[in-house]
Amino acid sequence: MAVVRFLYLLLVINTVIAAPSLNNCGGSSDDRFAEVIRGSTNNTFTCSLGPQDTGQLEWRVQWFPTAGGQQREDGAGQCPSPSSNTDTCTSKSLQPAFIPSRTSASHSVMTVNPTELFNKRVVSSGSLVCKVNSMEDRCTMDYITPASGTCSTQVVTSSSPWKPSISCTITQGNSSRGRYQCQGSYRKQGTSQDSWTSTWVGMSANSLPHGQASCSPPSPSLPPDDGRYSFRVRLRPGRQFVDAGTVELRESGKLSSVLVYLKLLEVKSGNYAHCLQSVDTVASQLGSHTDMIIAVLSSGAVPK
């Protein structure tokens, strides 16, 4: 009997956690902000219902009419229960800026048009709430101009292995929540493996939104194998990915530097003893390439 009660409790807990769920506002791995884009008439956010959500769905907005003032809550829309004979949703006090609709028995969509708002603080300071019975989910709204700019990747050959250095110049971006960040990531060419992951860091955004800002995400941890790697940067606010170029990375930059060293010595073909002595003097730089260099020298293929 105790086991049955425990399983029943787990079922109840799981049911509570599952419903309802607001999508299109970051997601579980992101920062859970519902971005409302300036000038866009079609910002959409979806409320997904679980099988236990049989009641009427309420859309609400909680916001601050003045900075530091008292919070206000307005009805944004209402949709009938899935078992109802109608799929028609009703707009509330925030229409026509907030228009709800039902797309299926388990999904309702809120379309936000900030151009219809007299007071933009509704979206710059508010939270969007979807509620069924006593359960709800919410996302903080951020009134934004998506960040844009240019990025590039340079190779630091003085390290072993070579390291990428990513930098960006941000020319535009505005966030009512101060979300100015960038995230660098990479993928090795010629493989099916995607490794687009790295740490979010803040931009030097004091000049935004009225000027430029810079952003240098930390270099991703690369595997030790050589190859060509493509880099990109994700910018906030917005969800734009900016191409940061493709570069060649090696486990060590030693091979080419030693060949240049021998070239500068003007080593002649057949002068192997001097060549090998030169190799020995830079053995600490050669590492795993020592045998390769000796083989090249012994074959007579010495740089002229």
Can you describe what's shown?
- By secondary structure, this protein is of the alpha+beta class.
- The protein folds into 3 domains: 2-133, Immunoglobulin-like; 145-249, Immunoglobulin-like; 254-298, no CATH class.
- The chain is 18% helix and 38% strand.
- It has 6 helices and 16 strands.
- The strands form 3 sheets. Strands 2, 4, 5, 6, 9, 10, 11 and 14 form an 8-stranded mixed β-sheet that branches.
- A hairpin with an 8-residue loop joins β4 (57-63) and β5 (72-79).
- It is elongated and about 65 Å long.
H/I helix tally: 6
Q: Total strand count, please?
A: 16
Helix/strand class: alpha+beta
CATH architecture of the largest domain: Sandwich
Q: What radius of gyration results from the CA coordinates? A: 29 Å
The biggest sheet, with number of strands, parallel, antiparallel or mixed sense and barrel status, is: 8 strands, mixed
Helix coverage percent: 10-25%
Enter the CATH topology name of the largest domain: Immunoglobulin-like
Name some characteristics of this structure.
single chain; alpha+beta; Immunoglobulin-like; eight-stranded mixed beta sheet; four-stranded antiparallel beta sheet; 6 helices; disordered C terminus
Quick structural summary:
By secondary structure, the protein is an alpha+beta fold. The protein is 18% helix and 38% strand.
